[in-house]
Design a protein that fits this description.
The complex is a heterodimer of chains A (335) and B (262).
Chain A: H1 2-15, H2 26-34, H3 41-74, H4 87-100, H5 112-134, H6 139-163, H7 169-177, H8 186-204, H9 206-212, H10 216-221, H11 226-248, H12 254-266, H13 270-294, H14 306-334
Helix pairs in contact in A: 1-13, 3-8, 3-11, 3-12, 3-13, 4-5, 4-6, 4-7, 4-11, 5-6, 5-11, 8-11, 12-13, 12-14, 13-14
Chain B: E1 2-10, E2 20-28, E3 31-36, H1 43-50, E4 58-63, E5 66-67, H2 73-79, E6 80-83, H3 95-100, H4 116-127, H5 143-156, E7 161-165, H6 173-188, E8 192-196, H7 200-206, E9 209-214, E10 217-222, H8 224-227, H9 230-237, E11 241-245, E12 252-256
Parallel strand pairs in B: 3-8, 3-9, 6-7, 7-8
Antiparallel strand pairs in B: 1-2, 1-4, 4-5, 9-10, 11-12
Classes of the chains: A mainly alpha (335), B alpha/beta (262).
Chain lengths: 335, 262
């Protein structure tokens, strides 16, 4: 099962650079990647646009799926997503500030939108951690605090939208749908530098997450430093999410759908779930983005935001998973 | 070798009445101690304190004369296992996975096991008669089977001290006695067990020592025949109990008074 997952993921990534509003034959793309000097200029140009995009899709898909899987255990709630604790709402608020008034918030080589998004995400995480520490990091308290922050920053986002120049509204709305339409390597490089350390941290605590899934008291009894673990998972998961939102906006459903699908395939142990989520999340988002580039819904040459695709595909698939799961539960009660 | 409570006092909120107050205990290896008491008398809180899950406001828990709170978490868990009252795994797990999860404190980074893992899990499942359930889905088991599997996971942890909060609550008489037999044999091999239960007769039959809590205080402590006597129990539970002798062994049996006689 895990092998099938890996093979299909590799296939998706291999095909993704070929498709888009302009389809390219595989031979010319391979030539453009490995012998750029000999390639024809148009192919080279398209590939240099698509490759960073595929890489960003890989990173964001993997990060969101791992953050979602970790948060579901941290918060003791299978419906938790990377966005439950409010870090994405904060990032969106920051992005809207930067989109409405582009003069504020550039940081060195990073654009104003990622800089502002990361700043506000980090601020939200800091406040949340402060509150959570006082409440002993309980799952319900974290969810309630997260929901509150979600409302607060959503209101802030609406306020910015209201005050902004109407000509900028379309860009803002499009950003909110989540998209991977970036140019150049800066976005994937930034996401990788931000996210990979947090990803490694979450992989390292996978066995302890298995224990946390039994509840805090059991985990303590088996030697898990529960309060420290909760702090680490919250910070690492939220930071991964911030890295994604800053570069690609709040892309929907990846962090909810992928972990649930993965658990059906490989079981619920985190040492299998987290690596499988990396592979499946990456493949799912790259495939969704390839679809976004290809579906001619908005007329020739225009693209769908990938967040719309993930939501449109992810929503029904998730409902199917839920239906399958609850029927399985019903039959097991009789047994 | 001992697990010791010195002057434990704990309240769940600042200014609230303490759930446990001024408790001293010393548990020895090769001893089965049963904690009984009316609802809300602080039994579960006391167990959580002994396990280091709750930190007392005053007093301390000592393991071999050293403060339990100062031990590294894994080292503590290799010595002291704790099974809280209600355990509900978030995800679907097989029985074998649940039992094997008790091995956590013995495993290395990335949860890599050592040679002893498989043997410890198999032994724990044999001792608790859960081996035939191994590949069943934990969530699909009856309440009694689930409790036996959770006890197995504690055995797989191979601790010297076992702290169990009502592990027999939803078991029928047969399985209650079976679990207690298993705990007894662990005690005979040198473990120390603290068991919280509402079942006074189980305490009477299996305990080396009974601790009776009332309103967070140690009301009585001693052999079953010393604690489970009419005047002591009456002060804790009221006058609705009578104590008789077990027909087979010289141990007390506690019965509710017949409502018909009044």
């Amino acid at each position: 099962m895990a092998l099938a997952l890996l093979v299909s993921a590799v296939a998706v990534v291999a095909v993704a650079p070929l498709v888009g509003t302009v389809a390219l034959p595989a031979g010319r793309v391979i030539e453009a990647i490995f012998h750029p000097a000999a390639a024809d200029p148009l192919t080279l140009q398209i590939v240099s646009l698509r490759l960073p995009r595929v890489v960003l899709g890989l990173l964001v898909g993997a990060f969101l799926a791992v953050a979602g899987a970790s948060f579901q255990t941290l918060l003791g709630n299978p419906l938790a997503t990377p966005y439950t604790v409010g870090v994405a709402a904060a990032g969106s608020f920051g992005a809207f500030l930067a989109l409405a008034w582009p003069l504020i918030g550039r940081l060195g080589p990073l654009g104003a939108v990622p800089t502002q998004a990361v700043f506000w995400s980090a601020l939200e995480l800091f406040l949340l951690a402060f509150l959570a520490r006082r409440a002993r990091w309980g799952g319900t308290a974290l969810i309630l605090a997260g929901v509150t922050f979600n409302f607060l920053f959503a209101s802030g986002t609406l306020l910015v939208r209201l005050l902004a120049d109407p000509f900028r509204l379309q860009a803002m709305d499009r950003w909110l749908m989540g998209g991977l339409d970036i140019v150049g390597w800066r976005a994937p490089a930034t996401a990788a530098v931000m996210g990979l350390p947090a990803l490694i941290v979450l992989l390292a605590v996978a066995p302890a997450l298995d224990q946390l899934a039994f509840g805090d008291a059991v985990a303590h009894g088996r030697g898990v430093p529960v309060a420290r673990l909760r702090g680490i998972v919250l910070a690492a998961g939220a930071w991964l999410t911030a890295a994604c939102v800053a570069q690609a906006g709040p892309i929907a459903f990846v962090g909810l759908l992928v972990p649930h699908g993965v658990r059906l395939l490989v079981g619920s142990g985190h040492r299998r779930v987290l690596p499988a989520s990396i592979v499946a999340g990456a493949a799912f988002l790259v495939a969704a983005d390839a679809l976004a580039r290809t579906v001619p819904l908005l007329g020739r040459g225009a693209e769908m935001p990938v967040g719309v695709i993930t939501a449109l595909v992810g929503g029904p698939v998730f409902l199917l998973l839920l239906a399958r799961r609850s029927s399985a539960n019903r039959s097991s009660i009789g047994g | 070798m001992s697990l010791e409570a010195r002057g434990l006092t704990f309240a769940y909120a600042e200014g609230a009445a303490p759930a446990v107050s001024g408790i001293d205990l010393e548990l020895n290896r090769g001893e089965l101690m049963v904690v009984v008491g009316p609802n809300g008398s602080g039994k579960s809180t006391l167990l959580a304190l002994l396990a280091g899950w709750r930190r007392p406001q005053t007093g301390a828990v000592l393991l071999d004369e050293r403060p339990l709170a100062g031990l590294p978490h894994r080292e503590r868990a290799r010595q002291v296992a704790y099974l809280p009252q209600s355990v509900a795994p978030l995800y679907d797990l097989t029985v074998r996975e649940v039992v094997a999860s008790g091995r956590h404190p013995h495993r290395g980074p990335w949860g890599l096991g050592n040679g002893g893992d498989r043997a410890a899990v198999a032994e724990a499942m044999t001792a608790t008669a859960t081996a035939e359930l191994a590949s069943r889905d934990f969530a699909s088991l009856s309440g009694g089977e689930q409790q036996r599997v959770l006890v197995a996971s504690v055995f797989a942890q191979q601790p010297r001290w076992l702290l169990l909060d009502e592990p027999t609550a939803s078991l029928d008489v047969h399985h209650r006695v079976a679990v207690l037999d298993v705990l007894r044999s662990a005690v005979e091999r040198g473990s120390g067990v603290v068991l919280v239960t509402h079942d006074l007769n189980l305490a009477a039959l299996f305990a080396d020592r009974v601790v009776l809590l009332v309103e967070g205080r140690r009301h009585a402590m001693g052999a079953p025949a010393e604690v489970l006597v009419q005047p002591v129990l009456e002060a804790a539970y009221g006058p609705e109990l009578i104590v008789v002798e077990h027909p087979e062994v010289p141990r007390p049996v506690v019965l509710p008074r017949s409502g018909l006689s009044r």
